[in-house]
Amino acid sequence: MSKIKKAIITDAGFASRYLPITKTIPKAMIPIGSKPVMQLCVEECAKAGIKEIIIVATPNTKSKEIYDDYFHNPASNVKELLTKQGKTERFESVQEVLNLPKIIVIEQNPDLPYGNGSPIVSAKQFVEGEEAFVVLYSDDLILGQGDVETLIHEYEQHPDAKAVIAAQEMPESVWHKYGMIALKENGTLSHIVEKPKTPDLSPSNLTSYGRYLLTPEVFDYLVPSNTGLDGELWTVDAITKLAERGDVFVARSQGKWITTGDPKNYFMAHLEYVLSETDYGEDIKRAIMG
């Protein structure tokens, strides 16, 4: 049994590129196939044996309320109606949600600086006593074998690691969009070059994205005073500091990373998911091909 039992999934931010829909619902509740993005992230954790998941929602919105309703509301009225209609099989998908591991929904601390590290800091009290924990950015989805399982396996092989980060090889044409990984001679992380302006500035073809296994030591550096580029609190800055104190291992994804960070990439991710992961993918493919 794995020692890694907890995960943090972040969805803090106003997702302005998705307006107007995100003025009403959080971005990670937009569906991929028949499930919201957030559920797919939760399921990735569940398949890896995670027992408790902390979802960090945008403060001063209805996001926490929406997530709590989705994951905890038993929808008894719906079940009762479907039972009367003899359609109880339609409730099975709802029951699957209710059977997911323990889910705690919190709001990001609004007093923290802007940045993708702040949701993790907001959940500190839930994980600081753990040997290690997993972090997922809900912008990122993995097709096939989930990265959480891969991260945990890598950590089990290297229990003295300060952290483990997921990586995927990407073509040169997109290196300028992502954080590119620089390796030490022993193959562990040296640092990450954020969005290199030209290909020659990229230290490798390995991209870092929102799947990490972290030890509580990361909170030594994820503090409000340690802001970086654009005055933001960056998770990768803290991970780089960990790499200066010990080994941060780089685990190649065994699946396929796709991002839903903007409407165009969301559409492409949705299409790829439907084509590869649903029982109606072939019908969609035929419709596209005409």
Plain-language structure description:
With 290 residues, the protein is of the alpha/beta class. It has one domain (6-289): Spore Coat Polysaccharide Biosynthesis Protein SpsA, Chain A (Alpha-Beta Complex). Helices cover 32% and strands 24% of the residues. It has ten helices and 13 strands. The strands form three sheets. Strands 1, 4, 5, 6, 8, 9, 10, 11 and 12 form a nine-stranded mixed beta sheet that branches. Strands 2-3 form a two-stranded antiparallel sheet. It has a two-stranded antiparallel ribbon with strand order 7-13. α9 packs across α10. The radius of gyration is 19 Å and the shape is globular. The mean pLDDT is 94.
Q: What key attributes describe this structure?
A:
single chain; 290 residues; alpha/beta; Spore Coat Polysaccharide Biosynthesis Protein SpsA, Chain A; nine-stranded mixed β-sheet; two-stranded antiparallel ribbon; 10 helices; 13 strands; globular
What amount of the residues lies in strands? Answer: 15-25%
Biggest sheet descriptor: 9 strands, mixed
SSE string:
EEEHEHHHEHHEEHEEEEHEEHH
Radius of gyration: 19 Å
Question: Helical segment tally?
Answer: 10
Indicate the percent of residues in helices: 25-40%
User: Looking at this structure, what is the CATH superfamily?
Assistant: Spore Coat Polysaccharide Biosynthesis Protein SpsA, Chain A
N-end to C-end Cα span = 49 Å
Structural class estimated from helices and strands? alpha/beta
DSSP E strands, number: 13
Q: Which geometry do the CA atoms define?
A: globular
The CATH topology is given as Spore Coat Polysaccharide Biosynthesis Protein SpsA, Chain A
CATH class: Alpha Beta
Q: What is the CATH architecture assignment?
A: Alpha-Beta Complex
Number of spatially distinct domains: 1
User: What average pLDDT do the residues reach?
Assistant: 94
- Low-pLDDT residue intervals, each spanning 5 or more residues: none
